[in-house]
Write a structure and sequence with these properties.
The protein is of the alpha/beta class. Helix content is about 50%, strand content about 20%.
Length: about 425
């Protein structure tokens, strides 16, 4: 028994099967009789709650066999079926419903729709529509009513007439053949996949930025807590206790050194922030290579001597001129040499060397310490990364890499049982390069 052609597109009448007992449909006006088929009972119950909350009548079956049996004895307006089910898939169920029932209900597939071939499979088995997971409950009933309205439109058509379809409250007449329609649909779906992929990349970047912000906040709060406490303690001693001049001077010096550490940490954090935002820059100029290395040795000599570590320099070409930001290159050398001294035992040696190679200068810092564990090497330039063998903010090597890359150079590390070796490159001044 078919529905009357005069039924308005927005009105929904339950399908009736000639061979079914035909129990009366829902007494509620406008309600949709829905058969939910899903082997996931939790998902099925959630669907039922959403649909019944909108005034619909819902029955649940856990597999395709049970669904076919129910359809033989009860009329349903819509079958809402999961695609992936054991035994009989949603595609198989759809094909059988369309082939075996004289007046089949609308069949809507539930799927993630992550593969364009899902659309082709749905068309192949005769599905009327899809609802993608995760779905929004408030849109379920609206989607089902639209699908039913389109079914009613098809039933009013005469053979050979262009298809009519309702979409977003408007009725369209479709003259294209099925192959054209499917091609257009798949092209649109492909664009949606690209858009979703771009959105996923944006989401991941946003999450990474949030994690980075949280890491910065955690690092700043942790690394500033101790120096702030030191300054507070020293200031309290100066204010509360009658200290002799020598002790006062000692506390003032502690405050000064601690403030310098805090300032350095803040500057490091600002440098990392600029690097990650793409706003970090250097101001290169012609610089004597031997002068830069001599200054680095002078700056760090006292630290090496205090630990009884030999700090030596080996510059093969004293006349080499690099194009570099002198202050930033000294910052790189300070980080590398300072780390090398920290991990070199007493009596060991830290060597700063440089040589010209193929139009660029290769600088190296080598130590005679225990080296770097192989599993730590890939992370050595990561920001906030600690090997567990020393303190610090975990920013020094990340900043060193950013400075070298801003000069157009590269930095890398080699490690063995004889110690660690850091190398980085700087551009050779062009006049010097052409003269050579």
């Amino acid at each position: 028994m078919s529905e009357q052609p005069s039924t308005p597109p927005t009105a929904v009448s339950p399908s009736t099967l000639p061979h079914s007992p035909g129990p009366e449909s829902s007494a509620r006006s406008g309600a949709i009789n829905v058969l939910v088929v899903d082997d996931d009972s939790e998902t099925a119950r959630a669907l039922k709650r959403s649909l019944t909350a909108m005034g619909n009548v819902v029955e649940i079956k856990s597999n395709g066999v049970e669904a076919l049996q129910a359809l033989q004895h009860h009329p349903f307006d819509v079958v809402l079926s999961d695609v992936v089910m054991p035994g009989m898939s949603g595609y198989d169920l759809c094909a059988r419903v369309k082939a075996e029932l004289e007046d089949p209900p609308v069949l809507v597939l539930l799927t993630t729709l992550s593969d364009p071939r899902d659309i082709v499979r749905g068309v192949e088995c005769g599905a009327d529509n899809y609802i993608t997971k995760p779905y929004r409950p408030e849109h379920l009933t609206a989607r089902l009513r639209q699908v039913l309205a389109n079914r009613d439109l098809r039933r009013t058509q005469h053979p050979g007439e262009p298809a009519r379809i309702s979409f977003l409250g408007e009725t369209f007449t479709i003259a294209s053949d099925p192959a054209q329609i499917l091609g257009l649909l798949l092209s649109s779906f492909e664009e949606l996949i690209r858009t979703n992929q771009a959105l996923e990349v944006s989401r991941q970047r946003a999450e990474a930025a949030t994690r980075a912000r949280d890491e910065v906040l955690a690092t700043v709060s942790h690394d500033l807590r101790n120096p702030v406490g030191t300054i507070y303690t020293s200031a309290s001693l100066l204010l509360d206790m009658p200290l002799p001049p020598e002790a006062q001077q000692r506390q003032i010096e502690i405050i000064r050194r601690t403030a310098q550490r805090m300032d350095r940490l803040i500057m490091d954090l600002l440098d990392v922030s600029r690097m990650e935002a793409g706003r970090f820059s250097v101001d290169p100029a012609p610089e004597q290579l031997r002068t830069i290395i001599a200054e680095a040795r002078e700056l760090l000599g006292a630290i090496a001597a205090a630990k009884n570590v030999n700090l030596v320099a080996d510059v093969q070409d004293d006349s080499a001129i690099v194009r570099a930001d002198r202050g930033r290159v000294l910052q790189v050398l300070s980080n590398l040499v300072g780390n090398a001294i920290k991990f070199t035992p007493e009596g060991g040696t830290v060597t700063i060397s440089a040589h010209v190679d193929d139009g660029e200068v290769v600088l190296a810092v080598a130590d005679t310490g225990p080296g770097i564990a192989p599993e730590h090497v890939p992370h050595i330039f990561d920001r906030f990364w600690h090997s567990g063998t020393g303190g610090g903010s975990g920013l020094g090597l990340a900043i060193a890499r950013g400075i070298v890359q801003a000069h157009g150079g590269q930095i890398w590390v080699e490690s063995s049982e004889r110690g660690a070796l850091f190398r980085f490159t700087l551009p050779l001044e062009q006049k010097q390069a052409s003269a050579g």
